[in-house]
Amino acid sequence: xxxxxxxxxxxxxxxxxxxxxxxxxxxxxxxxxxxxxxxxxxxxxxxxxxxxxxxxxxxxxxxxxxxxxxxxxxxxxxxxxxxxxxxxxxxxxxxxxxxxxxxxxxxxxxxxxxxxxxxxxxxxxxxxxxxxxxxxxxxxxxxxxxxxxxxxxxxxxxxxxxxxxxxxxxxxxxxxxxxxxxxxxxxxxxxxxxxxxxxxxxxxxxxxxxxxxxxxxxxxxxxxxxxxxxxxxxxxxxxxxxxxxxxxxxxxxxxxxxxxxxxxxxxxxxxxxxxxxxxxxxxxxxxxxxxxxxxxxxxxxxxxxxxxxxxxxxxxxxxxxxxxxxxxxxxxxxxxxxxxxxxxxxxxxxxxxxx
Amino acid sequence: xxxxxxxxxxxxxxxxxxxxxxxxxxxxxxxxxxxxxxxxxxxxxxxxxxxxxxxxxxxxxxxxxxxxxxxxxxxxxxxxxxxxxxxxxxxxxxxxxxxxxxxxxxxxxxxxxxxxxxxxxxxxxxxxxxxxxxxxxxxxxxxxxxxxxxxxxxxxxxxxxxxxxxxxxxxxxxxxxxxxxxxxxxxxxxxxxxxxxxxxxxxxxxxxxxxxxxxxxxxxxxxxxxxxxxxxxxxxxxxxxxxxxxxxxxxxxxxxxxxxxxxxxxxxxxxxxxxxxxxxxxxxxxxxxxxxxxxxxxxxxxxxxxxxxxxxxxxxxxxxxxxxxxxxxxxxxxxxxxxxxxxxxxxxxxxxxxxxxxxxxxxxxxxxxxxxxxxxxxxxxxxxxxxxxxxxxxxxxxxxxxxxxxxxxxxxxxxxxxxxxxxxxxxxxxxxxxxxxxxxxxxxxxxxxxxxxxxxxxxxxxxxxxxxxxxxxxxxxxxxxxxxxxxxxxxxxxxxxxxxxxxxxxxxxxxxxxxxxxxxxxxxxxxxxxxxxxxxxxxxxxxxxxxxxxxxxxxxxxxxxxxxxxxxxxxxxxxxxxxxxxxxxxxxxxxxxxxxxxxxxxxxxxxxxxxxxxxxxxxxxxxxxxxxxxxxxxxxxxxxxxxxxxxxxxxxxxxxxxxxxxxxxxxxxxxxxxxxxxxxxxxxxxxxxxxxxxxxxxxxxxxxxxxxxxxxxxxxxxxxxxxxxxxxxxxxxxxxxxxxxxxxxxxxxxxxxxxxxxxxxxxxxxxxxxxxxxxxxxxxxxxxxxxxxxxxxxxxxxxxxxxxxxxxxxxxxxxxxxxxxxxxxxxxxxxxxxxxxxxxxxxxxxxxxxxxxxxxxxxxxxxxxxxxxxxxxxxxxxxxxxxxxxxxxxxxxxxxxxxxxxxxxxxxxxxxxxxxxxxxxxxxxxxxxxxxxxxxxxxxxxxxxxxxxxxxxxxxxxxxxxxxxxxxxxxxxxxxxxxxxxxxxxxxxxxxxxxxxxxxxxxxxxxxxxxxxxxxxxxxxxxxx
Lengths: 355, 1025
Hints:
CATH superfamily of the largest domain in chain B: ATP-grasp fold, B domain
Strand content of chain A: 25-35%
CATH topology of the largest domain in chain B: D-amino Acid Aminotransferase, Chain A, domain 1
Low-confidence stretches of chain A: 347-355
Strand order of the largest sheet of chain B: 14-13-10-11-12-15-16
Oligomer: heterodimer
Strand content of chain B: 15-25%
Largest sheet of chain A: 10 strands, mixed
Largest sheet of chain B: 7 strands, antiparallel
Order of helices and strands of chain A: EEEHEEHEHEHEEHEEHEHEEEEEH
Low-confidence stretches of chain B: 171-177, 706-710
CATH superfamily of the largest domain in chain A: Class I glutamine amidotransferase (GATase) domain
Number of strands of chain B: 38
Number of domains of chain B: 6
Number of helices of chain A: 8
Largest interface: A-B, 51 and 56 residues
Strand order of the largest sheet of chain A: 8-10-9-11-12-17-16-15-13-14
CATH class of the largest domain in chain A: Alpha Beta
Radius of gyration of chain A: 20 Å
Distance between the termini of chain A: 52 Å
Helix content of chain B: 25-40%
Mean pLDDT of chain A: 93
CATH architecture of the largest domain in chain B: 2-Layer Sandwich
Number of helices of chain B: 35
Shape of chain A: globular
Helix content of chain A: 10-25%
CATH class of the largest domain in chain B: Alpha Beta
Radius of gyration of chain B: 28 Å
Structural class of chain A: alpha/beta
């Protein structure tokens, strides 16, 4: 069966359909990760996005050998290059899963060409459809809906046996991230829109998760207020969206990038050290907007200088734009979680973010 | 951190002659290193004994030493050149071993040298299996079980071995040379009994073989601050038990999940860190997916064959960046040269798949085709495609063997299960045969140990290949999958040329995509391309009507190796210099010519008509140079001319090539020209052959046309030998068309290289074989120098060359082989292309003949000088008999050497002294001669004045063995006419001990009579003035 990918700029690509037989629209992004197709497709940060895999033969092992990052397929659609070898069990399993999840896919399109279009024109929205003239619109992203869809709806406690409890703000966290943090401390997990007055425990720290959408969306104002109220009192950590929201709460601003970073091979630089990290972000904290805030840039992307880590040595605010939990990609190359553990244990020291 | 202080004059050590396990990849690494150093203003001095290399060219390094690679020579160079730093990580195991010797000798302290890159003490840890295991345990890595077996008590120790199968090996193994898999106690007893019988090995490391686990490699770069990145990983399709150099390898890995992929990556970096690697290293793992564990197998603390593969597969110039890291730079300070604007601290992301397949010389060494932990392949090919299927089919096509080893649906192996179970070069064919016979993937997986995912893909591919109505209306689908024209053509009874024309009519043509290290995430200025069907173009043609397209020489094989790449690369450099746009096509990832910025544009493609014609169709170049691709290009001339017209072939025309290659036509042409040749007859069929030979009289040389490396050239001395040969001809598919030449006894053989412009010619060089005519020129020792040829003979040769030049309108490079006896000259063979000896000729007289040859092709101009040597040089072949130990070691008309070294002397005596030293025939080394009974007295008389030379004949076998055991490793000279299996055994043991072996009486006589004089290591240029 044929399926079409329509881009906002008018380009149309014809390919073969797989997954669910419905039409969807979404923001078109590409990832260069050669592994972890299910980790990517279940990562809530890809919510509302049509994900293109740059590596043509990405589906080469069975689903059960993956670590899902949420309970469902988060992405709105899937684009892959290869068609021929896809007779395998691995592909049939994914096909079925997408079908049952209501997520369409397209294969056999010139993915490299599409990447070039995105690189040159910046982020675009796209439609996956069974016809060249779909009835649906390109649409827009609704951050609140995405957050609601992926974040927990009620608060709960995760006890790991330690006395310290961290307030974990779930904005659509990856399972691997919350698992990592819960190894360090017990967690009180709250949704992003949890009423502030209902938070009254004594916490060792606040942790802000990753998640989908635009960090400047007003639905995250409550989280920013939570940060400001606690800033200077307990350490605050953030990853990805959490990093952006933390920076904004303390006075910085963010912008949408031309086409973002999505892959497992990006290097971040800190003085004379460099670390390969796993990236998935379409927004970035503006370095110039950090001037006058308590935060300073610790790490930057080696290629475009994007702010990848900020910290405030005085008052315990530390966040990273990339994903130290990997899944997919390298795990914690800068010892983010180790340092976090030390801080929570009260042995915080400045500039000890290196191994 | 900028360059470390005090690195101003660097000695780069190369890898020496091409041997199995060490080939062009180190020419590539060393050339990149020299370039990387020179970019930083460093004065580079390069030592490599191999004249075929590109790195031993004055365009690459500032000073070149083509001298024996010994400790004495290194010290001489350090002193002469006031060297301050050594770079030994670019010359394979040879350079690393030499570094360990240098370190032990105290030279490093004596001259206060910097050792660039990983420190010797860390190299030792990586290389010594015992220390390595200790280190790995200390950082918590899983390693296989191991133990040491000692010669004194092996019989007892054998009982304590609990882990069969195991690998037995010695440290510092080159290409896993001494490694072997032992599966049972029985095998172990036999093995140790043999190994320890030589009295030269005292202990053997044994290690649980992890047989059947998935084998992975990670290519790591690390700087002195400890920053490390992993350029790519490589998945071996053959499981553990087959050397990575012998495996089919896919990059990036296809069947690893995210956790496996990144855990091994993380451990690779941790291991590199624990060994304090600076520069490149390669870490090998054995993965047990079922039990979610992996083991560390090995670390190569240097650039390796895998580094070259990883460089070409990913586009990331590993050796060049590694050299910068060795100089003290940090990863984050360097740019990725392929994009020009992104950081070198970046792990390439691929949007294509590459497949590497080794090239094995089993047509020459057929005794044991089993693949194992020791390398047997001479080279490799890489296929690049958007999908695994396309990449693999391209790799198979690149082997240039058509249906013989490639994908075939008509394989008919007896004992199929055995071929599935036992790794050989026929495994891929066996898998296809099994699929055809209805085996399920599960069964094939358990027999071969290949991953099910890969086999499922092969199964789908097979389904399409085997479609009952295999017809041209499916052409589009087949091309999309990457099925090559040669396969489709043969299934549809078409020629490749016809199919090409048909595709053109149907507009079924490929697009060309760029390799940019970033999957198009960043814009790149890379000129590194591959083709894939039905996709967009990443570029427009380079320069229609102006560009020159050069066809490379494909995988390194015996008789076709990096000496041809030397021609391609020197041409690319010359044309760049005169602003002619160049396009390079090659399929061999080890080469310098596939370095993406040596040419104006690089297409990494199989050297098959389809792929080359697609590129010509797209690029519309001015013409194609096929003279650097050995027989490959010669064989393609007529098809290219048929598609694109006669003018597409630059240099000697298609018609002349055909007339020269066809020995019958060539012989009658010589008659017509009145040029002397050996008497010959021609036999259409094998049935007539015996009778035809009788007309001529034995001994004879039998040849068939269009065969690479003369692999069907045989000397036949009598009827009995002929009767033994005929079944072999039947087996390899020779049905007739045999040219029978009279074998010339006791002639000298001359190898004449010349360039010409269709009318006139210039001799570039003449090498004279030390051995009598009849030995393949690649296997003979060739010497060149002043006054070796009489004036009369030289004039006679010139006369012949001029006649041939004008008759065939030879343009560009040619090579003529002559048999000479006193004043008699006879023509043996003419090749209208670059010869194997050409790089030796260029190095020996210091003239860039490639440049002049190209000028004669493109502009018709010749230089106003010709061969006029001022110095003496010899080319000494190196044989792989240590690896193919079951083979007859006698040399003959069929080439079997893998590489060569060169020695030079200001005088003929100095050159001979160097040759004699190489063969151990200097004064302080004893020699044992095994001779015929009837030659005995003569030999004794000739060697009487040498008190360390002893002569034995077949009756004195026992005494000879006793004597050899006493002397440990004397030079051994076998000049007996009859083959004796016992003597073959002796040679085998002596080879293992590193004893020089001489197999030719003429050579021996020359050596014994050469006078020893003082030898000096000199920079190459100083020999030429």
